[in-house]
Amino acid sequence: MPVLDIAEFAAAIPDYLPIVGLDPGEKTIGVAVSDVTLTVASPLALIKKTKFSEDAATLFQLMGSRKAAGIVIGLPMNMDGTEGVRCQSNRALGRNLLRLQPHIPITFWDERLSTAAVTRVLIEEHDVNRKRRAEVVDKMAAAWILQGALERMRGIAEAAGKGF
């Protein structure tokens, strides 16, 4: 299955199966999971990057334990809407995951400022110290990314006159 746009992705997800969201960074991959109604995203895990094959195995194990049916990967677009080096890296991650599991639907979601937004919430609203923020910010950013994709998927379904 190729990488899909968000509408195709939404159509490819079976009913009552969750999806995961990824916030890939240089050292870690934040992972979030949706509920089965595709309404709410929650932080799930932080994968510390090692070898791609090991990281992918960890991700697929997490997905299997949650019966997740698809992957939303954050795409850190530049503020002017162009794609930089990090976007290329995240797109390569998607292609490489598809090589290992070609049946899993994958889409990308613009994640501009997701980490900054989550960090601001952690500092201003929860007074979380720097050490604790480092432990949770990437998986919370993954939830932020996934929540945005879920809301767009819901909008697509509603515009088509379908329940979600």
Characterize the structure shown.
The chain has 164 residues and is an alpha/beta fold. It has one domain (6-158): YqgF/RNase H-like domain (Nucleotidyltransferase, domain 5), CATH 3.30.420.140. The chain contains five helices and five strands, in the order H-E-E-E-H-E-H-E-H-H. Strands 3-2-1-4-5 form a five-stranded mixed beta sheet, sandwiched between helices. The model has no long low-confidence stretch (mean pLDDT 88).
The helix-strand sequence is HEEEHEHEHH
* Strand residue content: 15-25%
What is the architecture at the second tier of CATH? 2-Layer Sandwich
- For the residues shown, what is the average pLDDT? 88
Distance between the termini: 23 Å
Dominant shape: globular
Indicate the CATH topology.
Answer: Nucleotidyltransferase, domain 5
Strand order, sheet with most strands: 3-2-1-4-5
In total, how many beta strands?
5
Largest sheet: 5 strands, mixed
Radius of gyration: 15 Å
Overall number of domains: 1
The assembly state of the depicted protein chains is single chain
Keywords: Cytoplasm, Hydrolase, Nuclease, Ribosome biogenesis
Pfam families: RuvX (PF03652)
Protein name: Putative pre-16S rRNA nuclease
Subcellular location: Cytoplasm
What features would you highlight for this structure?
5-stranded mixed beta sheet, alpha/beta, 5 helices, 164 residues, Nucleotidyltransferase, domain 5
